Amino acid sequence: MTSETVHAAPRPTREDASRGAHPPPLRRLGDLPVAVMFVLPAAVGFAAFYLWPALRGLYLSLTKYNVLTPPRFVGLENYERILGDHLFWNALKVTAEYVMINIGAQTVISVLLAVLMHRLTRSLVVRGVVLLPFLVANVVVALVWFWMLDYQLGVVNHALDWLGLDRVAFFGDSALAIPTIAMVNTWRHIGYTALLIFAGLQMIPRSVYEAAALDGASEWRTFWRITLPLLRPVMALVLVLTVIGSFQVFDTVAVTTGGGPINATRVIYFYIYDLAFNRFNFGYAAALSSVLFVLLAGIAYLQLRLSRTGESDLKGA
Amino acid sequence: MAAPSAALRRRRRPPSIRWGRVAGWAVLVLIMAATLFPFYWMLRTSFSNTRSLAFGAADLLPVDFTLGAYRRVLGLSTTAEAVAEGGSSGTVDFWRYLRNSVVVATTLTVGQVFFSSMAAYAFARLRWPGRDAVFMLFLTALMVPPIFTTLPNFVMIKELGLLNTYLGIVLPGLLMTPFAVFFLRQFFLGVNAGLEEAARIDGAGHVRIFFRIILPVSKGPITTLAILTYITSWNDYFWPLLVGKDENVRVLTVALGIFRSQTPQGSPDWAGLMAATLFAALPMIILFALLSRRIIDSIGYTGVK
Fold this sequence. Notes:
The complex is a heterodimer of chains A (317) and B (305).
Chain A: H1 2-8, H2 10-21, H3 32-60, E1 63-64, E2 72-73, H4 77-83, H5 86-120, H6 124-135, H7 138-148, H8 155-162, H9 177-201, H10 206-214, H11 219-247, H12 251-255, H13 268-277, H14 282-307
Helix pairs in contact in A: 5-9, 5-11, 6-9, 7-9, 9-11, 11-14, 13-14
Chain B: H1 2-12, H2 15-46, H3 68-73, H4 79-84, H5 94-125, H6 131-140, H7 146-159, H8 166-174, H9 178-189, H10 193-201, H11 206-217, H12 219-235, H13 238-243, H14 252-262, H15 270-303
Helix pairs in contact in B: 2-15, 5-8, 5-9, 5-12, 10-11, 12-15, 14-15
């Protein structure tokens, strides 16, 4: 350990100085041959499964393509069709409703949970328990709740019975299906989101709270006047991540309602999937994916702008 | 000096704070109970007899205790036995799907983490023209929603004749993900340059430095990334659903979806479904039990940097 440090300490400075002063012509390529070797596998993966499909997706969105016969170029026809496609607008509406309920509930409960954990306990067990649902698959979570919320035998409906309330067809009622799916995924994500916020809470200096306590501020007031404002940059990032993730809901819908009843839960991911793999309308599905891409980029941009993510209120203090 | 003032403060506003803490704990316990109950219900139902569930739908213990659901799900019971306990006559074999999930998640994790760390090393520690431009290009891929590349990737896997093969399922993520490269680069940037320089003086090349210094020194973050990658690929549903429905390569999530769609609409095999669901979730729960501290600590710095 010691010998290493002694040997190494002066070396880098001498190296850097000589490089900075007169770059020898042969050094201009630097470590290029070695670097190519190191980057090559990842570069192939990137080119083949990110870059090329992105370009190809754009091209396919301008074609009629059923996978079996070669694509036929049709210009902007697919994009024009979107305007009059009431199923697409329905999918967008349904997805937006899902995102609002999911993100709204998830954010409120997660903030509550994070603040409670921060104020009450550092217990790893508590944090572990609340994170547990996040570690099992969406499909697992969907099936468990599908069972618990079953109209006939589900334990939740039996509890409602016992309380003297009417049974509820959670997944079968077109007005309730989206809120139900939103709450199921909220259940899966609150622990994860709370831990993200918890990490943000730990960055707020203790001195701020001590000052508030000295001034006699109540817990309630401290939360609204100090915790929440100082948490803003973290909350903004968490919201960008969770909103974009929420728009991509698919698994839960696919294994529970399959888009029904009628089109009540035909969210945008499921609609695109259905178009491509059940109706073999790949060109149109690709066009919808492009629209979704632009939409998500726009939402992320707006969120970042509105929330001034990069700035922290701590700097001034 | 400090003690009396603290005591004074405590005396000045006693009960309100303590009641606040009690209420806080009550909410916390409530949230934890709501988190754990569905797991218990999964367990309780999986040991029940589907035919008897209707007679004890709200019982807290298994109804008409039996291991039949597990026997059905693992392909151990005859059709007659299965039907007698409310299962369907179709056969499923979750041992095989478990094996498929292990193969897929392991290959994907090893390949993705290894090749991504190679690339991250080149981006973090080597000097070469175009390095930053290539890195930025990699980063733009973080912003593209998966479905945009998923459809063309499906077409490519189909053209390569890799539908319903392990290779077809793992290939798109085997060589890199932008996130993995970005994540590892951050850590490699922070590795002490002195270590590297000392090795170079001893005559070590970049390959040796990568294997002997960078990888061992970054064991922590690499393990964290590997665990997260394993969990993510284990739980993935969309991509394997598209390219790997065939029984030979069907992973657990896809198998659950198919099992659910095959179960009779009017009287689903709930015990079988819950046994299968628990069986699919159990490896991740065990992994979490073993590595909880590392997984919990990783949430802070992978989500928000």
